[in-house]
Amino acid sequence: MLSPEALTLAEAKVPRYTSYPTAPHFSPAIGAAHASRWMAAIDDTHPVSIYIHVPFCEKLCWYCGCNTSIASKYEPVRHYFETLLKEIALARRTIGRRLRAGHVHLGGGTPNALNAADLAALARALREAFRFDAQTRFEVEIDPRTLDYSQIAALKEAGVTRANLGIQDFDPRVQKAINRVQSFELVADKLAKLRAAGIASIGMDLIYGLPHQSADTIEATIDQSAELGAERIALFGYAHVPWMKPHQKLLEPEGLPGMRERMALVEAAHQRLAARGYTRIGIDHFAYPDDEMTRALREGRLRRNFQGYTTDMADTLIGFGPSAISAYAQGYAQNHTRLDQWRDAVDRALVPVARGIQITDEDRLRRAVIERLMCDMEADLDAICRSHNAASHALDHFRDEIGRLDFMVRGGLVTIDGTKLAIPEAARNFVRVVASVFDQYIENSKAKHSVAV
User: How far is CA 313 from CA 102, 136, 432, in A?
Assistant: First the structure.
């Protein structure tokens, strides 16, 4: 049972921990020269992951927190795409050899803002720069409203193995409030076409915390998603950050649910997902028991990266496109966010990195603790210290952190048995708060984050 005092931490502003250290702590002191050296030093005995950021959408969804812009015509998309091909070729020259691609992920924005011809050309460019094989997983995020048959054919030819559809909510009133209208029938039609093309693995993204949502509407959306055969469902809490995304203010007149209402929504959603046979993974992913992600959870090999929870075991992730973040053995590097600055760097044959951070052994140790908490809802501090060759025992190394956890232990958010931490099922939604105790950067951070629940 969680104490009333502990429940107040639902409104704590903490990172989502898709990396550690997190992006607000990146610095312009890390630039193209660092990234070039890091790329050239990639261990080619292991596969790498590839992320492509497509920063365009046809319409603006008012809840959106992504780095994207609205393209009313194709010319700016074409301009972007020409630079993207140059960046991929530049990476191939910088690395100096064709690395094996383990996972490829097209995200956005809207990847299907690219037309069929350019999707096909992108797949060819990636295969020229990297080695693909039967084990390569190729995933793409899709806006079903703008997906056409020629794009589906191009995705099939490219070797896409999984499509992830942005649904958010099927309720018409909610859709109108967030400026994303897409009927159940439209989504069902696009899914049928994807499956007919052989792209049968389907995931869906849903959001809670939107205007006009209720337990009934969110349960109905989950039922409809299950009826459409979604093998995985990601249920994200809406992050209201109008200081970063001013268009989100357009939602405020519609009325956003308060914390008590948000917690009721997420509880109703979790119960419905369980009733539909989905296994909860981490804080916001759900999958069927025989899904690869569920197996990874059971086997203790679930990972977390910039795409969220993943089965991807690669330690190196190479990001392409504006704002994309790469992860190397030495640290993180983020591309320029502005299209013109990203394009200018690529045109000058510079790896288009604007900022990043070089990580230390202490960062790697704390990253491991945070990742295990976020993925497994538990962490053995002693085992992690041993695997990272920490100079001191876990009880000494994390003495201050264990002390700061005392309030959360009394509040029911975490248990401590020796050096083993565990998040009770009732407190799973608070794992980001527990993980933040091990974040050495957050205390002096001026970054603004979304609420924990």
Answer: 8, 12, 22
State the architecture of 1-19+361-446 in CATH terms.
Orthogonal Bundle (1.10)
Between the alpha carbon of residue 434 and those of residues 10, 126, 372, 411, 414, the distances in Å are 11, 39, 12, 12, 7
Closest CA to 428 of 451, 449, 404, 452: 452
Can you name the residues that pair with 99 across neighbouring β-strands? Answer: 130
CATH 1.10.10.920 range(s) for the chain read 1-19+361-446
Q: How does strand 353-358 pair with strand 331-335?
A: antiparallel
Distance CA 256, CA 285 (A): 23
- Can you give the C-alpha Rg of the chain in angstroms? 22
Helix pair 259-275, 215-227: axis angle to 10 deg:
30
* Residue-wise DSSP of 195-256: HHTT--EEEEEEEES-TT--HHHHHHHHHHHHHTT-SEEEEEEP---TTT-GGGGGGGGG--
Q: Where in the chain is the domain with CATH 3.80.30.20?
A: 22-320
What is the spatial distance between Cα 313 and Cα 293, in angstroms, rounded to a whole number? Answer: 12
Query: Which residue carries 């009133």 as its tokens?
Result: 173
Alpha-carbon gap, residue 50 to 61, rounded angstroms = 26
Q: For residue 389, give the DSSP letter.
A: T
User: What pLDDT sits at residue 47?
Assistant: 97
**Which pLDDT value is given to residue 446?**
63
Query: Is CATH 3.80.30.20 the right assignment for the domain spanning 22-320?
Result: yes
Cα 194 from chain centroid?
23
Nearest to 327 by CA among 338, 315, 335: 315
Q: Report whether 439 contacts 2 (CB < 8 A).
A: no
**Alpha-carbon 381 to chain mean position:** 25
In the Cβ-directed half-sphere of 270, how many Cα atoms lie within 13 Å? Answer: 19
The pTM is what?
A: 0.94
pLDDT at res. 432: 95
Tokens read off for 284: 């916001």
d(CA 176, CA 166): 15
Whether the link from the prior residue into 76 is cis, omega within 30° of 0, is: no
Q: Could you tell me the two tokens for 173? A: 């009133």
Given a cut of 50, the residues of the chain with pLDDT beneath it are: none
* pLDDT for position 447: 66
pLDDT computed for residue 452 by the predictor? 62
428-437 pLDDT tens trace? 999 999 999 9
Largest CA distance in the chain: 60
How far from chain centre, in Å, is Cα 139? 13
- Which residue carries 């312009």 as its tokens? 28
